[in-house]
Amino acid sequence: MATGGQEAIDYVKYNIPDGIILDLMMPDVDGFQVLEKLRNTAKTKNIPVLILTAKDLTKKDLSTLSANNIQQLIHKGNVDMDGLLHKVRLMLGNTTKDQSMQKPKVLIIEDNPDNMTTIKAIIKDKYKTLEAFDGEEGLKMIRSHMPNMILLDMSLPKKSGEELLKIIKNESPTKNIPIIAVTAQSMKGDREKILNLGCDGYVSKPVEPDELLTEMCRLINTI
Ligand code: MN
User: Fold this and answer.
1) What's the gap in Å between 193 CA and the centre of ligand 1?
2) Cα–ligand 1 centroid distance for 152 (angstroms)
3) Do 73 and 114 have their domain in common?
4) E strand or H helix at 35, and its extent?
5) Which pTM does this prediction carry?
6) Which of 65, 91, 94, 184 is the most exposed place for a label (fewest CB within 10 A)?
7) 8: which DSSP letter?
8) Containing domain of residue 79, as a range?
9) How many domains is the chain partitioned into structurally?
């Protein structure tokens, strides 16, 4: 999800989606500029793009779009939900099977090596794991890898879980990544306290495999 042209351009620097649904009329950086930028960048030039717009297109607009190799053009109002889903499927059908089969990327931020090993063993069949052993490394990995989910130990060296949360929940596009606190803070009221800090989920240590996987499944479905 990107809520503007510049945000979209920033997003694809770190994370290449399988397809893009692009509006044309946006303030500041519009869809035409985004499209041009995508097509002039080696890493993004082949991403399928579906244009979804309410704009009355001029001849010049149409020639710009076709010169930039768009997958489909849909006028808002000419499509219902099923129609749009169908078009998205067609768009993704043009990418390789491999990409759509990829497991979601999960970043584990945990300073205790034993806990890291345990968590990885629990989730490795269903998720691709990335690891960071302190808060600063975690922040770097979040920005460079844009994981689909983060498992966050709250007490970390260099930057605490709480500090990290404040940063990533206040900047786009990282604010949309679901975060599960995995923490030894399991006194009465700790869950509420941690959810209030901005975590999307909570699992207490020692980690129960079923509890962790259930919480992850609940949140990954909301992406
Ligand atoms: Mn810790």
Assistant:
1) 17
2) 9
3) no
4) helix 31-39
5) 0.58
6) 94
7) H
8) 5-93
9) 2
